[in-house]
Amino acid sequence: MENKISKIVSLCKRRGFIFPSSEIYGGFGSSYDFGPLGVEMKKNIKQIWWQEMINNYDNIVGLDAAILMNPKVWEASGHLSGFSDELVECKNCKKRFKQEEIKENKCPECDGQLLKPRKFNLMMKTFVGPVEDSASTAYLRAETCQGIYMNFENVLNSMRLKIPFGIAQIGKAFRNEVNPKNFIFRTREFEQMEMQWFCHPKQANKWFDFWKKERINWYLNLGIPKKDLRAVEIPAKKRAHYAQKQVDIEYRFPFGWGEIEGIHNRGDWDLSNHSKYCGKDLKYFDQESKEKYFPYIIETSIGVERSLFAFLVNAYEEVKGGRTQTTKAVKETEVVLKIHKKLAPIKVAVLPLVKNKPKIVKMAKEIYKTLKPHFMCLYDQIGSIGRRYRRIDEIGVLFAITVDFQTLEDKTVTLRNRDTMKQERIKIKDLVKVLKEKLE
Ligand code: ATP
Asked: Are strands 377-379 and 348-352 parallel, antiparallel or unpaired?
């Protein structure tokens, strides 16, 4: 199964999804760059999440807060003291590991003796301004939600909101992870999509269950099968320092179950601590009941890259001997990326059947130009048509339009479906409409 990961890593590099960062200098730890297809897929994930949060639910508004904040934020949030991993170092090879990853009290790399565990804070430190002293120390945010809490009052007042309501945000977060690993699963820089739901403390359990269900359905609706998804309730001693209740939504990766999203009941931890530290009362006043209280916060927190990784693993399919049945099955293995239509980076490929017939090529280029403003498209005329179908299947292109000799006579093209490989003839003038319907 690990093999599947190396195949996906290689496909990602070869076909423009994900590249190692600063590769010409030997890379940089666990940093990755998203290539032309990766960035499209990432953008699709963010767009779907954003649109659903903002449009599908009542009372959720968006925010884009700064990454750099007053360091007091992190003192009050408990991240400077409580956001740490237990780190162990091998006496022999000097490699470092998270204590929770150690199964037998020996180094997993060289069987060497491990030194005593010590606390390792995950906040990424930097300096703001020209002087590098403690007064200019700042932190790259370790979670996007603190920016939301900083703006709780601003948003509440400017948007005239009433509890319950939510604030959604997408943005980068940074953690100085001890042991980044498993490709883009654990990196030091990543993007989060977080929604903070402010509610009455008595309603917190109800909303927790509501959001847990909604978030699980999100993955199911985007093609992750039930059998590869689970919700795990985290016991008190393993919970994040701010959480009263925590459920991790996990995906079955080839290397085991891994968290892709956390649902947390943060209680009044954040607002009450910030009130204490900044001296400003951040309680909510209910005009109708005249009650004044700290709202409880239910958080849904998902990693963009981790979920993208899960979607890629889920989509990757190998077919031994090839999928086409028209010739004898003596072909090599074919790869199809069966990505959900909303997530697929490229929706349509336009292919002239042959490249040496100027009329066919011209027609194909015209169709490509017409479709491009409507869908993410690619144009490909290199190699045999079978090879081109395989190339586009490998990157999950949903539909292939082939311009052939018949096109010149009756202005129709073939439209091939990635998953069924079925082809139908469509009039060129109907293409935009038909494709829009199919992509709905
Ligand atoms: P883990 O236990 O794997 O370190 P966590 O419980 O610390 O994760 P949360 O703080 O709940 O994670 O963050 C919410 C989401 O952000 C995670 O479910 C994951 O998708 C993403 N995330 C967290 N840390 C990383 C990381 N180092 N690299 C990539 N994504 C991450």
From this structure: parallel
Query: For ligand 1, is residue 260 a contact (CB within 6 Å)?
Result: yes
CATH number listed for the domain at residues 346-439? 3.40.50.800
Ligand 1 neighbour 187 (Cβ under 6 A): yes
Q: For ligand 1, what atom is nearest to the CA of residue 186?
A: 28
Q: Which of 35-49, 173-187, 426-440 has the lowest mean pLDDT?
A: 173-187
Q: Distance, CA 297 to ligand 1 centroid (Å)?
A: 18
**Best of 178, 191, 301, 302 to mutate for ligand 1, by most ligand atoms within 8 A of CB?**
301
pLDDT band at 10 (very low <50, low <70, confident <90, very high): very high
Domain boundaries, the chain: 2-70+123-312, 84-121, 346-439
Atom of ligand 1 nearest to the CA of 301: 14
Please give the model's pTM, rounded to 2 decimal places: 0.94
CA distance 434 to 440: 10
The CATH code that applies to domain 2-70+123-312 is: 3.30.930.10
